[in-house]
Queue: 4 jobs
Job 1
Amino acid sequence: MTENGKIAGTPPADDVQDFDAIVVGAGFGGLYMLHRLRSLGLRVRVFEAGSGVGGTWYWNRYPGARCDVESLEYSYSFSEELQQQWAWKERYAAQPDILRYANHVADRFDLRRDIAFDTRVRSAVFDEDANHWTVHTDRGDTVRAPFCIMAVGCLSLPRLPDFKGRDSFRGQLLHTGLWPAEGVDFSGRRVGVIGTGSSGIQVIPEIARQAGHLFVFQRTANFSLPARNRALDEDHVGRFKADYPQIRERARHAPAGIAGIPMPTESALSQADAVRQRVYEAGWERGSTGFTRLYKDLLTDPQANDTAADFVRAKIASIVRDPAVARALTPRNHFIGTKRICLDSGYFETYNRDNVTLVDVRDDPIEAITPAGLRTRSREFELDTLVLATGFDAITGALLGIDIRTSSGATLAAKWADGPRTYLGLMTAGFPNLFVITGPGSPSVLTNMISSIEQHVDWIATCLTDLRERGVRRIEADRASEDRWVEHVNEVADQTLFPRADSWYVGANVPGKARVFMPYLGGLGNYRLRCAEVAARGYEGFVLQT
Ligand code: NA7
């Protein structure tokens, strides 16, 4: 700070462009936020680090990348014309289709003219006296607006583990979340993949089909179900679209924001073995992440969970021919569903191929990346290409990648050093007029992201309208309300098995990250009602200033 209270490095006032709102990110959250704010007559500037729209779906272009929510539900509901006219091809849309859809939305609603692409936001500073945010970018822009909305995504900061010798590798080093747009040719190559989360599980069968040899370096075996992806049939689509208003309404009130995954009512333990087996078999045949919501106690009761986990373990044993490989692929150290369950297309079958080798790096850890490949404690692997499917600094990574501070010296990084703290996942005390779309403490990644995005964007748009009508210039989460919300988020999580897994939901995949269960497990339907009530009571739990 300088003596006059201004932040050092702030350019002269005439270099600053003024807007009514700044939005960071042009994925599904940022695009819809821009559309809504514009319809309120606000002047908006959106910054996007990529060269195009789509966010997560812009960056994750690896072969096999596909959404695990059905395309007819993983799409915007805000425009009846859009949802009627857009034609999804497959039950689960592949990344190129989702990206096409994002581009279509951007063109259809003429969104691009307010988006600055190839521009990364470096800092956002709140002026406590003037009540506005000043945002600086890596291209030298300085813009100012009373409101700043972070639509930076939950899975947008790829994590490249700090393997010894990582930069010495002479071959091609790739991360699934930063995939080259021009694609990669694996034919005849010796390829290594590190990681068997959703990204690994999707990319491995695709690479195996092309590569000379594929080595999969697995630290933790994962639960996965066959996606049963297929081309959509026209009659089904016609019926679905005719029912869209009711289906969308059900999705808005469903726990996962998905109409096809309703709230379970039965308990697994209350059913006879044979009945349960039939239910699991039907779930396995259906191919849906709803598998872990077949019974209400699967994610709360270890014994109930075991019944579902054992079913999937037996399936793995029946698919993978080599018993030693099947054993190594069988997850045993977490409850099914407490790490994001995967949907695959031929994942376990891939290990029956002669050109695929599973390397268990829990017992035989990776020691170093070498110029020629990779070395575990006991073996050397020569590789032409090494794919890191090692995930993301999830939920908070992209937010904390921006230097967010106030003129009185508070920084978000310091405030969240022991884990994120928010009120409703929408705002964080001490940082007025800053909204986060699908932030920590909201249902976000445990739901259909587009349902959650629409709920947040609609809430924020209504809030800004209300504030304008009442002449309110400043809104801030009240600290006591935030404390109670954080406590509630933890309480709900602690009633489940989720916090016991070393997942990215608790930040366990990032060394040094505080272990806190970040998303809200209360269900999107309940959460939506809570947010609506808060607004109806005059923004209860927020401090408003005119
Ligand atoms: P995930 O689910 O975080 O998976 C990352 C994988 O990489 C996982 O198998 C990790 O093993 C493995 N990993 C990470 N670091 C290492 C090191 N240092 N050594 C060996 N193996 C490692 O990321 P994804 O991209 O697959 O999926 C993220 C989400 O995107 C997914 O849940 C969907 O919601 C969409 P670990 O389990 O930590 O032992």
Job 2
Amino acid sequence: MALRTQVVVIGGGPSGLLLSQLLHRQGIESVVLERKTRDYVLGRIRAGVLETGTVNLMRQAGVSERMDKECLVHDGIVISHADEQFSINLKKLTGSNVVVYGQTELTRDLYDAREAENGTLIFNVENVQILDADSDHPRVSYEQDGKSYRIDCDFVAGCDGFHGVSRQTIPISARTEYEKVYPFGWLGILSETPPVNDELIYASSSRGFALCSMRNQNLSRYYIQCSLTDSPDDWSDAAFWQELKRRIPAATAESLVTGPSIEKSIAPLRSFVTEPMRWGRLFLCGDAAHIVPPTGAKGLNTAAGDIHYLYNSFAQYYATGDTLGLDQYSEKALARVWKAVRFSWSLTSMLHRFPDQTEFDLKIQAAEVAFMKTNQHSQSVLAENYVGLPY
Ligand code: RFL
Ligand code: PHB
């Protein structure tokens, strides 16, 4: 059976849904193809911090009502090193801030909006193939419940994450990949306990990195740097809490409220970029094109940056026939992506323990944090990147 639409969006994660919703508001038709179910996508606990640019895109997409009501505005973050800590006042240094609103909630709002507006979302698709993307008549084929389908379209948006098919569709000779794999992961837990602090704490310690984050006043998210060979089952809740307490300042550890974990998972850390982000009529967005380590909270926000550029380019094309935005998409998106890659690499390097670190390396790391503690310029660099660079 053959369908026709203007844009086929591969992947129903935050990138794909946001693009589809923004296009809908401009009267541009799309079909979203998702490999899993809605509940599966909503079960993945991931990002928690949104830049103002991401918040504004949600507003433009007409899906900000619950977010505006429930999000927590954060005007600063805390950096700690061993027992010392200092705040970075994002608001004072940049005039801007970030908000805490979980990726799960943002994705749920987007699903609800697409469904309320009768958007075409197709779940449980298998064997998605992008055909003739380098011609004027691209097509996407897929299977569902053993039946084969085909969609003819003007463009394909590859929003299918790091393990998707979109990037792999671009011939290897037409792309260049840049990658750095870090020798550790993050073990994260979610617990129905009040957050230990009203600002996020990024903690460096001799035992490794830890992060105290949150979702709301009674839902905390904590991470500790762990070995790549660890599995979540190796870590009882008690062992997790004990290790976390050893990595954050003693006074904070004392006031930490612990409880049973309701989710526990490990994410390996990597930086990855593929260039270019366009091949013919196929455009890559979000994790399909780039990955950053979670230090600095740039993954979802960088994906939203891509969607900003691509959505505006499609809007320009469908309103006027002008392809300039589409032609410049890859270059513009990559310029912002690389700055986020640099920032998250730099914050990761400053705060984690690396297995091959020498005593000299440790002294340099400590000096970098000490410099930041008293130097406003250094704090401003962090703050400007953290709240999000302009589009
Ligand atoms: P996603 O979320 O991976 O969604 C891709 C979707 O595509 C589907 N898919 C396919 N569909 C059809 N056909 C195929 N062949 C397909 N292959 C895959 C998948 O099922 C999926 O539903 O990518 P997207 O939309 O680009 O969104 C990216 C974000 O999810 C990601 O960047 C962030 O979660 C990263 N991240 C963070 N980002 C932030 O901005 N702030 C944070 O605080 C933050 N914290 C995090 C994070 C990521 C983490 N992990 C687990 C990697 C914390 C963690 C622990
Ligand atoms: C989170 O709350 O999941 C989170 C917050 C900040 C980060 C990474 C993850 O840098």
Job 3
Amino acid sequence: MFSKTSSFFVFEHTDTLQQYVFLQKKVMFDALRPQVSSIIDSNKTPDAKMQDICELLKASVPHYDWVGFYFKNGDKRELKLGSYAGAPTDHTIIPFGKGICGQVAESNENFVVPDVQAQDNYIACSITVKAEIVVPLFVNGENIGQIDIDSNTPDPFTKADETFLEFINFEVAKIL
Ligand code: SME
């Protein structure tokens, strides 16, 4: 049996652990930022740069199991898959409003999904995926695409992921 005092201690301990994990992730993301910037500054094509970024993130971030960019497909109200790293997906075209990606195309806001099974408007790419984060990509204030991350780890995303992925999209916007 836990006394009130000991459960308070457990809560405090968990809180400290979460802060530690948050700081660890921040250190990892801070180390990746200059690598992303040097990819952006390289003399490759925009598609090759985005491919390099997808591969860098998938290889470097343990909780990123699939990393890809979707972009608005011309004048159509749908997204088209661009560069990605991870298993090939059937979902190369996603209508606006459908799935997590399609919802972000309309909301213009980050969408963090700690548990994909709890979502009814979700498009499953693989049964191993437990969580997803989608961050919109703006060029001149217009939502023209997004970065999409799938994770096989349950509830892995924090504010540090959102800030980092916003930075990625800000950098990618410079080459589009
Ligand atoms: N799960 C996404 C579809 C894209 S895959 O994750 C690659 C969604 O619900 O929009």
Job 4
Amino acid sequence: MLLFGLFGNPVSHSISPRLHNATFQALNLDGCCYGRFPIIEPSTLFSTFHTLHLEGANVTVPHKEVAFEGCDEVRGIARNIGAVNTLVREGTRVIGYNTDAEGFYQSIASFGTLNNALILGAGGTAKAIAMILKEKGVDTTILNRSLQRLSFFEENGFTCKTWDSFTCKAYDLIINTTSAGLKDEELPCPKELLHTLLSQARYAFDVIYNQQTPFLKSAHAHHLTCKDGKEMLLYQAVLAFNLFFGNRFDAKKIESVMRPIFEL
Ligand code: NDP
């Protein structure tokens, strides 16, 4: 039996077990099983991984930074982001990766070439998206409600603004990474500012999935090409699954199993 799992708090809502268990079955990986493991106390994350003899795990809110700190080795873009969402056992060592960043980038492939982008919000998801856009040569600005979380982005060379210090200009892509609209009807920035931004943009992306947020409704009203966070979630899962198995499977095959579960 090879055991895999999801670490987070909460994890009860997650579709990750469905995604991964369906893919084990489709690839005839008998004896593989994926479960949800709520981690209440962050200091127990790695002891849980070892006690359960997991082969791999996904890490979600609020433990991605703790996972980054505790890995034996962090590889790829996760080193620049400072957050890990995928853990893979290699012998006695635990290797950390971040597939949110590449998952986001794959999900906007249909947008084509982008010159610049504006990220609304400065939390963990914004870090992953900002670092992959930087890696891909997209000129990226960060706009956040408050100053405190902008220091990471300033240190990494991004143009950073708060609502007060921001002067509008045209961006190809506007990305909402805030939780505004997740459980309320709020916009991620003041209404007038958003209107001006959307009226000059070509594309809008919201990391929130499974619902039409006020941000996406406004973007649709401005006739932008829009996308929510579903495909980002799909691609991060495809990438994580393949990391669990040393990237030996065809990503398209994994995607073909997982995509219908998202009803995409
Ligand atoms: P964080 O808590 O790390 O960051 C939240 C950010 O949102 C902060 O910059 C905060 O600003 C801002 N914010 C919160 N509320 C408001 C508001 N009402 N108006 C304006 N700004 C606001 O969140 P995460 O980065 O961890 O997660 C953000 C979202 O991303 C969640 O909705 C989550 O579900 C989604 N997500 C989607 C994924 C996918 O695959 N599609 C993957 C991971 C996350 P301030 O600094 O001023 O407080």
